[in-house]
Design brief:
With 383 residues, the chain is mainly α. The chain is built from 18 helices and two strands. A two-stranded antiparallel sheet has the order 1-2.
Length: 383
């Protein structure tokens, strides 16, 4: 498997550079999140609950069904089970940031799923591999714990920056986006030149690798959309987190499970799944944006959507005010263009009486607190 640039470098260089770029990406994404918004997502816990359930129960089960129905040979089936049991791909945060799904929920889910994967990833692997193939996986717990430690350290570093230096959130977002681009390019370069090409497999290989991503996307978004406690941007974020997998960890498990020529075949599954998720999820996010399901306005230009941040500050702080004097209606502050229909759903989820007031003719007026006024510059779109 060592080919191309990876084979020409000392063995420690590629993982070191990849981990540094990953660390920078996660720091940038976490540092661009308003800590009030993150606390709110943990307090409500609905989005995190749905996300963890989809990541550790729905997708692994879909992977098992795919392996069983298509009756994949062990070299492909075990590798696919490793992919569907390995959540926590850091790019999920990046995609949510680029297309303005709920980034705070994405960070919250990444934090929880990364820690939970210490237990849940081995449990799912042992259970489904034993049922289907009567074989237990070879796990490198040192690699697993090391990846988790890097992710957790990066997230908490970023959150500390966001908490104590809120004026740096825009810069952190740009830095994280740049790191994401560099990491994607670097991964593509070092993974090229493998021993076996990805384009000479049997049809069942491609069908089996594509199906879990498509089915998980469809089911998770449908359930998230129907959940009364999730806004549209939160449902989009849950969907992205569910489908985007840690293919690096899955690749390590696949390589450790086989010897000789089978190792290259096993590695092709997480490599091709990585291509599938990079193709499908941006398309899904583009459609979600155009349908008004993200925080970015559907009529904004594509360049503004991907280059600016439309994330809300903390979650809408909304009060209800009845228009009174001279028949002049008080106008809603122009935050609804950024929050869309999600704001009403979030208000309702907090148990406010605002929906009744709206029906009786009251007008929603955004009332910023003192802290919001101090951080008002953080709400402006990034240029």
């Amino acid at each position: 498997m060592a080919g191309g640039l990876a084979g020409a470098l000392p063995p420690w260089v590629v993982p070191f550079v990849a981990q540094m770029l990953l660390f920078t990406l996660l720091v940038g994404m976490a540092a661009s999140v308003d800590t009030k918004a993150l606390r709110e997502r943990f307090r409500r816990c609905c989005g995190v609950f749905f996300g963890l359930a989809f990541q550790f129960f729905l997708l692994p089960f879909i992977g098992y069904l795919t392996v069983s129905i298509l009756d994949l040979k062990p070299v492909y089936g075990i590798s696919l089970l490793a992919v569907t049991a390995s959540p926590g791909g850091a790019y999920s945060n990046w995609w949510c940031s680029i297309f303005n799904a709920d980034l705070a929920l994405s960070i919250a889910m990444t934090t929880c799923s990364t820690v939970a994967s210490v237990v849940m990833t081995p449990v799912n692997l042992y259970m489904y591999m034993s049922i289907k193939y009567g074989k237990v996986p070879s796990l490198n717990f040192g690699r697993l714990v090391g990846s988790i430690a890097v992710a957790v350290a990066a997230i908490f570093t970023g959150l500390g920056i966001s908490l104590y230096f809120p004026g740096k959130r825009q810069l952190a977002n740009k830095l994280g986006n740049m790191a994401g681009i560099f990491l994607m390019v670097f991964s593509a370069i070092v993974s090229s030149g493998g021993d076996q090409p990805l384009w000479d497999k049997e049809p069942s290989f491609y069908l089996a690798t594509i199906l879990p991503c498509l089915l998980a996307l469809t089911v998770s978004f449908a359930l998230g959309w129907l959940a009364p406690c999730l806004s549209a941007p939160e449902a989009v974020a849950v969907t992205v987190e569910t489908c985007y997998q840690n293919t690096g960890l899955a690749l390590t498990i696949a390589l450790a499970s086989f010897d000789g020529p089978e190792r290259s075949e096993a590695a092709s599954v997480p490599l091709f799944y990585g291509i599938v998720q990079v193709a499908i999820l941006p398309l899904f996010l583009f459609v979600a944006w155009k349908c008004g399901l993200t925080y970015a306005p559907a009529d904004a230009t594509f360049a503004k959507v991907i280059c600016q941040s439309w994330q809300p500050l903390g979650g809408p702080q909304v009060a209800v005010e009845t228009a009174s004097t001279d028949g002049v209606e008080s106008e809603t502050k122009d935050d609804d263009s950024r929050l869309g229909d999600a704001s009403l759903a979030q208000i309702a989820s907090k148990g406010e009486d605002s929906m009744a007031d709206v029906e009786s003719g009251a007008f929603l007026t955004v009332v910023p607190t003192d802290s919001d006024q101090d951080d008002d510059k953080d709400r402006q779109p990034m240029s």
